[in-house]
Specification:
7 helices, single chain, 229 residues
Length: 229
């Protein structure tokens, strides 16, 4: 396997892991510095923003853009190890990874650009339809489409593509955990079961990707070291 491909896989897996760590730190920091915001109306949201720092929120959103792009690259690299008779599954996984990266990046970039600019200029008309804090906003629904449907299908087809190669067992288990978590989180979102959505989208996906990234890093380091030996 080309060393550039292996290094790309190693770096993308490392960036995915680092992005999740930053997200966790940011989430804890937000909870410490101010009470968590629960959507009621636009007026309360503006008051919350004006009375609390948004630094860690923007930091988390920025790193989620980085995560989605790194996951797309990781999928491209892992697809190179798909079994020959299952290459089609890996290609489908790449398509859904690109779709996930696209809608997720758009969502988070709008939060740190358009939404921030609008609040700074006191332009609130129609803004609630673009707010991540509003769980029923248009853009939140688009984002959840990425995190539930596109991401789950990407990890599911990548799982099928990799087959039962023992060296990739940890990666495959993580892919399955993520697929199930995204699917169940999507059900929670559609039926407005907030606890179900929170548990599976935050904790379930987090667990799945920690396993995927740790196993991927171990996998690529082993291959790189074998090439150097």
């Amino acid at each position: 396997m080309n060393r550039i491909v292996l290094n790309s896989g190693l770096w993308s897996a490392t960036i995915c892991l680092a992005a999740f760590i930053v997200w966790i730190i940011s989430f804890v920091a937000i909870a410490i510095q101010a009470s968590l915001f629960f959507w009621t109306n636009m007026e309360n949201y503006i008051e919350y923003v004006e009375n609390s720092s948004q630094f860690f929120q923007y930091l988390a959103q920025g790193f989620m853009i980085l995560f989605s792009l790194a996951y797309m690259v990781l999928t491209l690299v892992l697809s190179e190890f798909a079994l020959s008779q299952r290459k089609l599954f890996a290609k489908i996984a790449i398509v859904f990874a690109i779709m996930f990266a696209l809608v997720s990046s758009i969502h988070y970039f709008v939060q740190i650009s358009y939404v921030r600019f609008a609040i700074a200029n006191n332009e609130y008309l129609g803004l609630e339809h673009f707010l991540q804090s509003n769980p029923t906003s248009f853009l939140s629904s688009v984002n959840m489409l990425g995190w539930t449907l596109f991401l789950s299908l990407s990890t599911l087809f990548l799982y099928f593509g990799l087959g039962s190669i023992s060296l990739q067992k940890g990666i495959r288990i993580g892919l399955l955990i993520n697929t199930a978590s995204c699917f169940l989180g999507g059900i929670g979102y559609l039926f407005q079961i907030d606890l179900l959505t929170f548990i599976f989208i935050n904790l379930g996906v987090g667990l799945g990707f920690i396993l995927i990234t740790f196993s991927s890093i171990k996998f690529f380091l082993r291959l790189i070291n074998n090439k150097c030996a």
